[in-house]
FAD/NAD-P-binding domain-containing protein
Amino acid sequence: MPSSVVVLGAGAAGLITAHTLLADGFDVCLITRDHTPGGQWAKERLYPGLKLNNVHGEFRFSPLEMTVPLDSATTGGRLSGHDMENYMQEFADKFLKDKIIFDTEVLRIHREEGEENPNPWTVSVRDLNTNSSQTLRFSKMVLCTGGTSKAKIPEYLSSAAAEKVRFGRPIIHSAQFGARLNEIMNIVASKSSNGSSASVVVVGGGKSAQDICAHLASEGIQVTVVYEKTDAFTAGEHPLPDFVRKSRMLSILSPHINQRTRLERFLHTTWLGAKIVHGNWNGIIAGSFKAMKVPEDSPLRLTYSAIWNIHTNDEGIPRDDGFHALVNSGKIKVVAPARVTGFAEDGVVALNNGNSLEADLIILATGYRSSWGDIFDERTAHDIGLHRRSLAENSGPDEWANYRTLSNPPPLHPENMKWSSSVYKGIVPAKNILRRDFAINGAVLATNDGYLFETISHWISSYFLGDRMKLPKTVEAALQHTERDALWLRKRHPDLDLSLNEACTSFSVFWTWPQFSDELLEDMYLPSMRSGRNWFTWPFQIISVDELATLHEERKANRRKNT
């Protein structure tokens, strides 16, 4: 009898994981609280102007081609939220018909002890339409709830804090922007009918804040954004050629935890190589500012480091209705560097520089928190080892001391010194590594989710099937691996607090997703560097998700050889 697997979440990671498991003979059920598939790209979460950092061909799965965007000729193939919504819906309709339970909230997850139990996972759920509850049982579980569904709102910016001081204005998190857009526009219209203009204050400088500001400003709304730093970005007057943006070129210019090739070792461990790496990144950022026509004294230059940080967007070809252009034209007001510290009576927003703003509406683009903590009972979370654990400040010699590209780092974030993820490779809790009944997809931060999610889905299916894999032999060995990963992240991104949202940052590879994907393929004894191995051209070979189309057959052939 096939094992029953529940996949929690019907976003991109959940959809491709379910597809791969079904192809391998598992009995699969997806559960989502959403009304449509897609997760963060579900229809109910979208809003006008939402753009991705990806272009056509970068965010899809090998079983299904994606329709070319209608405006591809002028945008370089830039994907919109609606492009992703349509693709996710088409993928679900074609491959997962009758496998997804929509409008269903997970209340509690519990695993019963005893390895003889064929269905140890119990999932208590509630139907959001009928309010009825039931308990479902499964043999295995894949957690794909993602890290962009639970709003993170600091207490001092909460509605409760605002109510105490009689702030008297609506406060909306960016996660609700699409669902409450009509409400926002009604507030603006009501203010206009009284002969004045509504003032919207957006808190935060990330991509969500930028997209929201751009949409509101394009609608003629007075909008002010407040941030200490904003995201770095790449841009150019012409689209980057595929042999740059869709190859390994950017990935080898970024340090990876393991130096897999002679070229990477040269670039990151020698004086000349480090000069080349930093020169390239500095040139990319300088060229992007120039392409966007950002003045030298503009607050748009208060960005995170593209080398050290993960707060980097790909803007592509400059657009007149884009965030940077609208700031340049004065249609979006920027208050930076500054931080909102709280609210006061009658719509007053207090800043840390002693100044204040007046607002008719606040939009908090303050990020997200983990989606895991609310659904597991404490004993189960402890038993499988889902929680982070403390990391010793003095953990021995620096394994990456010879990385010249990581010299002169920014100051270490205090929280970065304390915690280690307990999730092996961002996929399996180390404490549960020998059980082969629980895995995670979507918790590794990368710039190419489509390729990585599909690779991880095959890794998980092989893991569940008991295939021969390169895995730690003991729990202790798996925990040592997670400690090494934590030390690497401390070295690679010292000024980041990656513990804030483990559901999307159990591990971070960001630019180096090709190297990490290769390591996962090798875990399954499958060929890596599948785009080509020519000694001279391999850094520029285009990487396509179509390389993964035969993984099911390849894994099946390996299984036959090992039986």
